[in-house]
Amino acid sequence: MDYMEGGKLFRRSSNWKMNKGKIFKLAKGFRGRAKNCIRIARERVEKALQYSYRDRHNKKRDMRSLWVERINSGTRLHGVNYGKFMHGLMKENIQLNRKVLSELSMHEPYSFKALVDVSAHHFQGTGLSKRRV
Amino acid sequence: MATAVASPTFLSSAFAPRHHRRLTRLAGPRRAAPVGLAVRCEKSDKQKRQPLSALVPREQRFMFEGDELCGPDIWNTTWYPKAADHVTTEKTWYVVDATDKILGRLASTIAVHIRGKNEPTYTPSVDMGAFVIVVNAEKVAVSGKKRSQKLYRRHSGRPGGMKEETFDQLQKRIPERIVEHAVRGMLPKGRLGRRLFTHLKVYKGAEHPHEAQKPVPLPIRDKRIQKTG
Q1: Which regions are flagged for Basic and acidic residues bias (chain B) (predicted)?
Q2: Total domain count, chain A
Q3: Which domain holds residue A51?
Q4: Which of B37, B79, B220 is closest, CB to CB, to A109?
């Protein structure tokens, strides 16, 4: 009957007045009637909580892909692509994670260049395909 | 003393020689960006780059700790650009001559630079790219029979309102639209994409009115972009 969602207890009761306050508190900032009218607010709040559950998991994926993109463009400035760079780092047993590598590529260009040189031992040529900018 | 010093290095060389060396190399001092490699997200962090540890004499450093002493931790939190990092007046301007360049390859290069994907400070939600000026747009080239067969379609919204014209007809009519159409298809669609599109400036002849922005030639790595023969 009662269920937990978003850390709040939702009571499935015929008396909707019981958790209206909680719903409206969660519905702050919503557009139009969804912040004022209980029937619409309830639906939107349930959806919002579902989205927040899903996106807590997606956020980790999105951040990692952003780090990979940043490392990629950082290494391509030095003429190497991301795949060869990471392969070289793995071979050298450098266990820096992608978050830190992306921050190094932005804030510490000399250290990053040193890392690129370290990983360059493990592949022939530049690893940069001819067509990439 | 000699043995005490020797044994840790012996052990480390036996088990993880390279790892140990890498740690010491990476823990090097933070320097301001010298000539050659630029630190690309400096602008908003300028005030924070002088941590107290550089200003406070060694004896008094015990009075401070943590963030106050070494500056905020910028290496373990993902950087997000502040307003000072993407001021429009400080963006780079590139110029490229479209004479005899393959349309799609040129548009791809341009879109990458406008979006900012060539920089390590790339952020998808923020406009971190550069401006690109294209001159001689009427001389852009296509391969094969596209000149007479590639169709550009538009629809007026009314029934039966589809209009099509071929590449060379459009090139005679409005040559800038060809490059713009190509680049717009390669930029993201949405509010930010529309704003990025305004950073593309296409001109018909060899002149452009942006000399005051001092545009630099666009670096192109694509070897097959120039049409031969």
Answers
A1: 220-229
A2: 2
A3: 2-58
A4: B37
